[in-house]
Amino acid sequence: MSILSERMLLLRKEQGLTQEHIVLELEIPLRSYRRYEQGEREPSIENLCKLADFYHVSVDYLIGRTDDKG
């Protein structure tokens, strides 16, 4: 599991959200999101930015370049 997938899973669980809720909000396929969380695929830059905005964290946090969520 990659840092990105670990952080996506952690953020989702911290906020008590389901994968289904997130994909509806972000308008991305459920199958893709599941693969992101499982570390099987990496999101496009566009989807990575959507995820960062949705979780109110920086892209750098999501990809593991910093531990600061801001």
Please tell me about this protein's structure.
The protein has helices at 3-14, 19-26, 30-38, 45-55, 59-63. The chain is mainly alpha-helical and 70 residues long. It has one domain (3-63): 434 Repressor (Amino-terminal Domain) (Orthogonal Bundle), CATH 1.10.260.40. The protein is globular.
**Secondary-structure element series:** HHHHH
Radius of gyration: 11 Å
Low-confidence stretches: none
Helicity range: 55-70%
CATH superfamily: lambda repressor-like DNA-binding domains
The CATH C-level name is Mainly Alpha
| Whole-number tally of structural domains | 1
Strand content: under 5%
Strand tally: 0
Characterize the largest beta sheet: strand count, sense, and whether it forms a barrel.
none
Silhouette: globular
What would you say the CATH architecture is?
Orthogonal Bundle
CATH-defined topology: 434 Repressor (Amino-terminal Domain)
Q: Taking all residues together, what is the mean pLDDT?
A: 96
Core attributes:
single chain; 70 residues; mainly alpha; 434 Repressor (Amino-terminal Domain); 5 helices; 0% strand
Which SSEs are present, and which pair or pack?
Blueprint: H1 3-14, H2 19-26, H3 30-38, H4 45-55, H5 59-63
